[in-house]
Amino acid sequence: MATPIPALELTNQVFGKWTVLSPAPSVRGKHGKLRRYWNVRCACGAAGVVGVNALTMGRSSQCVACGRKASAAKHTRHGRSKTSQYAVWEGMIARCENPHHGSYHKYGGRGISVCAEWHDFTKFLADMGPSNGLTIERKDNDKGYSPENCRWATVSEQGRNTRRNVFLTHPADGRRLHHSGWAREFGIAPSSLQWALKRYGLVEAFKRCEARRKPPVS
Ligand SMILES: [Zn+2]
After folding, report:
1. What residues have a C-beta under 5 A from ligand 1, the ion?
2. Contacts of 196 (CB under 8 A, 6+ apart)
3. Residue-wise pLDDT tens digits, 172-183
4. Cα(69) to centroid of ligand 1, in Å?
């Protein structure tokens, strides 16, 4: 027999504009399944009752009045770029602050946060400028989201800066190159460099790679 899944503790958590206040009475659904509900308050002050799935899956993030306002804003001039930027902003905050977000372990779960000012969307918009369909990238992957550490990047630019692909500083001469840049310099595949780093550590791996470096093709 299946073990019942324990109720999530959502009190004080924030989902979009909703802040969760307390559990609301559960409702027995059509097929006898218990549906859990929470009392929530919108950023505008309106109270509401929202189902757990609607909250955690992001289907409900604000009260009806705020939803109407937001969709009206979509139809105003420049509404489109503003809307895609809003999605970026919402996603950024969810990755860092909502433990139920699918990627939370790679962000909030390892200490990546959003700076205080950027909890205000208009401030974020003013600092970053238009996204033009690009994604937000952190220059230093171990630091959080802030004006100093963020820029707009294409998806492939962003791919170069994932946690596995890091910048490495040469132990002897202090040059800082991207992981793939070093692999190119050593004339080996990035995966071989990855392996050597794991096996020998940075200093020894660099020594070995340099000793075996292939002469440049002329
Ligand atoms: Zn509201």
Report:
1. 42, 44, 46, 63, 66
2. 205, 208, 209
3. 887 888 888 888
4. 9
